[in-house]
Amino acid sequence: MRYTNSGQLVNLDAAHDEFGMFVRTEVPEEEGCYDPQNKLWWDRNTNKPVVTHTEGADPFLRGEFKLADGTPVKPAFQLLKERVAEYTPEWAEGVTGIPADTIKRLAHEMGITARDQKIELPIAWTDSWGKEHDTVTGNPVAFHAMRGLAAHSNGFHTIRALSILMTLLGTIDRPGGFRHKTPFPRPIPPCARPPNDPRAVQPNTPLDGMPLGWPADPDDLFVDKEGEAVRIDKGFSWEYPLSAHGLMHNVITNAWRGDPYKIDTLLLFMANMAWNSSMNTSEVRKMLTDKDENGEYKIPNIVVCDAFHSETTAFADLILPDTTYLERHDVMSMLDRPISEFDGPVDSVRIPVMPRTGECLPFQEVLIELGTRLKLPAFVTADGARKYRDYPDFIVNWETAPGSGIGFLSGWRGKGGEKSMKGEPNPNQWEMYAKNDCVHHEVLPRSYQFMRNWNKGYLEWSQRNGITRYSEPILIHLYSEVMQKFRLAAQGRSITRQPPKHLAKRVETYFDPLPFYYEPLETQASDKQKYPLSAVTQRPMAMYHSWDSQNAWLRQIHAHNYLYVNALTAKNAGINDGDWIWCESQWGKVRCMARYSESVEPGTVWTWNAIGKAAGAWNLTPDANESQQGFLLNHLISEELPKQADGSRFSNSGPITGQAAWYDVRVRIYKAEEGEPKQTSPQFPPMKKYPGMKDAPTWLAYLAGARKKGGAK
User: Fold this and answer.
1) How many helices (H) and strands (E) does the chain have?
2) What pLDDT score does 706 carry?
3) N or C terminus of the chain with fewer C-beta within 10 Å?
4) What is the rounded distance in angstroms from the CA atom of residue 636 to the CA atom of residue 563?
5) For residue 684, how many other CB atoms are within 10 A of its CB?
6) 533-538 and 563-565 as β-strands: parallel, antiparallel, unpaired?
């Protein structure tokens, strides 16, 4: 109750402008990421509403009450209880195929473990309301959720539901449960906002807002006066309002279509968008070379930065040759993708371990050079002079604001490297990282290492070091007012922006303040009798983003991939282990080899991503296993859902966050005909080598260790 909004009272007067919002004592001026403690509980001691966290109050979690003016209210937990009442184990069995008795057993085990096997550590800490605690208690129940749940068009609400389960079991940032890593937890929603008006994008002017951020209400959306998207990917629009990661998977399609506008130049880095980073790969490749009625390319100029002869470089008008990570400086910063440990913040660097090959420059250096030549304010002084010598110099001297003392790296700050987290730029920072195995790790006091949502010491430390803007408690939101604000706007009941009429029902449906289940959008639009199987593709660790594809040792381990199928499913389809088969969706089909696997559910098939290559790519011979036996499931996945009745199309993504629904595709499998080529399909004309490239080797062999005269060592 103290740590969530479960006891807060929700206005249930359907005629009220604040319907579905929390009842407040007052409405102060507040920033979107500031959650003031001005809501109400219903106190069982006095049988009346009181301000939350009133000393001695004992709030109801269940029940229905009326305020003095007759407004009906319920605690958020009561609304959650009513919502989940329909989601019985028997209901879940029908959706998942997991027997209801198994679901009940697992639920019982989790509840009993959390209740009866508590962990207690003798660590004193103080909560945000000044209450002293002698120990930290934990419940040893933990869950992990990433792409397996997120990469569905219903993933947002699924993960919300799992987070609420973790909260109810008492496992948030406690021993034995889910643990935060700095800079988390963040306020809900975090403070950063995207631009919210087309005028935020002006020539020769810094962007007014963050390229990525977290809208708190409809007024934070990046739309024009008609409510239409401003960004090429339609991120932060009414179609995908909370798209904190953008919709990279729709950029090429939207640019090809000229929706919401035509572009002149497409610059691609890191992602292999003509191959394994795109949904609908075959069609995307056509888009990259498609021409309009005047014979002009629909995407006029394509610039690709890559260290390798990847499939995407074949479509480039200009290739910027990148270096590998062995040849350049890199930063794993807490401002980007934090790698912290549970006990405190961590960041790290890479430093070159071998000289650069040829005339290649790290892409970071190219960006620094472009920014300087364009005289972007971040890269030049007031008189237009160059501000940074190169990328390492940029990393050392850039600050979030002049004099803030906060930069990309947290370690060895201050002029002599004597400060941590916050301090003046240190000209020897790279050298100090190098002397410490390239890693900085600050271990927090034990009293700061748990319960960080509501840990006074940790939150004040976080504020002092610029990690959070406020030291206020970060309550867990079982019930989301952010979602309700969008729903009220869709219902025409708010003074904020309101969605275009054709999107109002979509927003109203999916922006539910409580999690709910709905069938994935593509599944709803699929013939489940014809396509009875779910198909999943995931990146192998050895080829994440294809960066390690040219490692000869790893190639020997998996130079091609299979479609893994449950033995029972395969046998029912007349497929033997190792057979060549077809896997088909409503979008296309691929020919590949099947492999039995008992680790795959009967209703699912899966394969690795990025192992299959286009013929001739990566300077492999056209008959290399990667292209002849390896394949991409991406050819079966669409970046868009089927057309609506009015001809419009939505991204194949979650309607809330725009998360790509990689795992929603439905397929069927059947054995390839006798006489068909024992070769994956589709195939494409082999890529040609570029000027200056060596001939592809036909044989690679490496010996571990070194040879001595007179015999092998």
Assistant:
1) 17, 23
2) 54
3) C
4) 13
5) 17
6) unpaired
Amino acid 210: pLDDT = 86
Backbone φ and ψ of 134, nearest 5°: -80, -25
Place of tokens 């501000």: 387
CA–CA gap between residue 158 and residue 145 (Å, rounded): 10
Q: Can you name the residues that pair with 595 across neighbouring β-strands?
A: 564
Handedness of CA 71, 74, 80, 86 (dihedral sign): negative
What does DSSP assign to residue 696?
P
pLDDT of residue 641: 96
Alpha carbon distance, N-terminus to C-terminus of the chain: 67
Quote the longest CA-to-CA distance of the chain. Answer: 98
User: Could you tell me which residues come within 8 angstroms of residue 390 by beta carbon, excluding any fewer than 6 positions away?
Assistant: 365, 368
Measured CA to CA, the distance from residue 417 to residue 440 in angstroms comes to: 12
CB count, 10 Å around CB of 388?
19
Here the tokens at position 257 are 């279509």
Phi, psi dihedral angles at 507 (to 5 degrees): -65, -45
**Token digits of residue 499:** 């969605």
| Dihedral, 648, 651, 652, 654 alpha carbons, nearest 10 | -120
Distance from C-alpha of 50 to C-alpha of 487, rounded to nearest angstrom = 27
CB 348 within 8 Å of CB 325: no
Pair of tokens at residue 431: 């050298």
Query: What is the predicted pLDDT for the residue at 548?
Result: 61
Handedness of CA 338, 339, 343, 348 (dihedral sign): negative
SS (H, E, C) 149-164: HHCCCCHHHHHHHHHH
Mean of the per-residue pLDDT values of the chain:
93
Identify the bridge partners of residue 584 per DSSP, sorted by sequence position: 589, 668
Per-residue pLDDT of 22-57, as tens digits, reads: 999 986 666 667 788 899 999 999 999 999 999 999
- Coil, helix or strand for 640? strand
Per-residue b or e along 114-126, where b marks 16 or more CB atoms closer than 10 Å to that residue's CB: beeeeeeeebebb
d(CA 631, CA 309): 18
Q: Are 149 and 206 in contact (CB under 8 A)?
A: no
Give the bridge partners for 178, in sequence order: 172
Q: What's the rounded mean pLDDT across residues 658-668?
A: 96
CB atoms within 10 A of CB 89: 16
Q: What is the DSSP string of 100-134?
A: HHHHHHHHHHHHHHHHHS-EEE---EEBTTS-EES
CA distances 396 to 256, 373, 426, Å, are 40, 20, 7
Report d(CA 483, CA 649) in Å as an integer.
24
Q: Which residue has the tokens 């909370």?
A: 242
Gap between the Cα atoms of 524 and 641, Å rounded: 10
pLDDT at 197: 94
Tokens (6 digits) for 582: 């077809």
- Distance separating alpha carbons of residues 436 and 349, to the nearest angstrom: 10
Mean per-residue pLDDT, 324-337: 90
Q: Which residue has the tokens 């691929």?
A: 590
